[in-house]
Amino acid sequence: MPVVQDSTQQEPSAAPASRARDLLPSVVPALVVGAVCSLLLVGVSRAAEELQDVLWRTVPDALGVGRYSVLWMFAVLVATGIAVGLVVWKAPGHAGPDPATTGLDAPVLPPVVLPGLLLASALVLAGGPSLGPENPIIAVNVSLAVWLGARVAPRAPERGWVALAEAGTIGALFGTPVAAALVISEALAGQRIKGHLWDSLFAPLTAGAAGALTADLVSSPSFDLDLPPFGSPGWADLLSALTVASVGALLGMCAVHAFPYVHGAFRRLRHPMLMLPAGGVVLGVLAALGGHLTLFKGLDEIAVLAADPEGWSAGGFATMTVVKLAALVVAASCGFRGGRIFPAVFVGTALGLCAHALVPGVHPAVGVAAGVLGVLLAITRQGWVSLFVAAVLVASPGVLALLCIASLPAWLLVTGRPQMQLRADGSPVR
């Protein structure tokens, strides 16, 4: 007679969960790594802000030149290209690998390379190119964690230090360990995990919490754009989210497909003292077209847009969307050191507000969240991070369900296609 298994009984787990005494030794290293990674990020950001204030306020005021006049924007962007070109040319290790070949999964670099990479990143943040701090700072923190960890605990696996540094930096970047947990869990999805998932996430989540808490205590980052409140979603909101997210994904894929060609054009110049100043020239032209809000990493600038959703016409928002996306492609192609998440958030925000300006029935919160979701899915190919960033910008529970549904067609448009990251030979990663 066959035995019928009771559906309420579960098969024992193939791999037993870790014991508490196995996880506890990781707490202190995770807390230290997370806090140090956060402090390094805040320190570089603060230094860049001070330099930005000098370049864009003190000097033009002393010269009697408009802070964001076309002439001054062009001059500062070209000068930034020259300065970063000198660092890439002369600094040991040339400020790290070609940024077009790197993503959030940072390579481990020799310590001698890190000062040049930090300097180049700070110059970019201050000078106006459309890149954020995430990729270089993660690379620096990962490399330092691996280098110091190998001396403190030689038997500890390198991958463990990498995970702690990535989680600590991401937690500090977004002000919450949730973002770090999402990124790490997405990275673990393609690996064979021994034991429970939460065992693998325990130490990185601790590092992410330490990084986020340190950033909150020191700098109090906030992503809430304080858009008009959004209540319960309706059918029109669902249609808006589906449409804007899909358009954002298609727009982002246009940039992804253009990326290797723009990168190849700058590579033909062969020398950083030609590539980077040339990139500064192109960025200066784009700044003249899009205005000063299309400069910098974009986080402060999206707050300006969101503070007055009716302040620009649909054409104005569309111009900023296209110009910022083009500036992101150029800055990432010509050799400026920086990440692509924050500029992509600006592109999605401007796209969502453009949709609201075209069709007033599109709620600003829905338009912004869906636009950011679609663009980030195309640019980063990080599903959880895209959902998380889009959701925290509007801080409305009603939007989350819309985003989950809108992510489905947007993901179908981007999955399996080239990514905004290149191999050493210039071909796109898939």
UniProtKB/TrEMBL annotation:
Mode of membrane association: Multi-pass membrane protein
Primary subcellular site in the record, as a coarse category: membrane
Pfam family, one: Voltage_CLC
This protein's record includes keyword Transmembrane helix: yes
Keyword Methyltransferase: no
InterPro entries with a match to the protein in the record: Cl-channel_core, ClC, ClC-type_chloride_channel
Annotated keywords: Membrane, Transmembrane, Transmembrane helix
Coiled coil feature spans: none
Stretches that traverse the bilayer: 27-48, 69-88, 108-125, 137-154, 160-185, 197-218, 238-262, 274-295, 315-334, 341-359, 365-380, 387-412
Source superkingdom: Bacteria
One MF annotation (Gene Ontology) recorded for this entry: chloride transmembrane transporter activity
Compartments where found: Membrane
GO CC terms of this entry: plasma membrane
SUPFAM superfamilies: Clc chloride channel
PANTHER family: CHLORIDE CHANNEL PROTEIN CLC-E, ION-TRANSPORT PROTEIN YFEO-RELATED
UniProt-recorded name of the protein: H+/Cl-antiporter ClcA
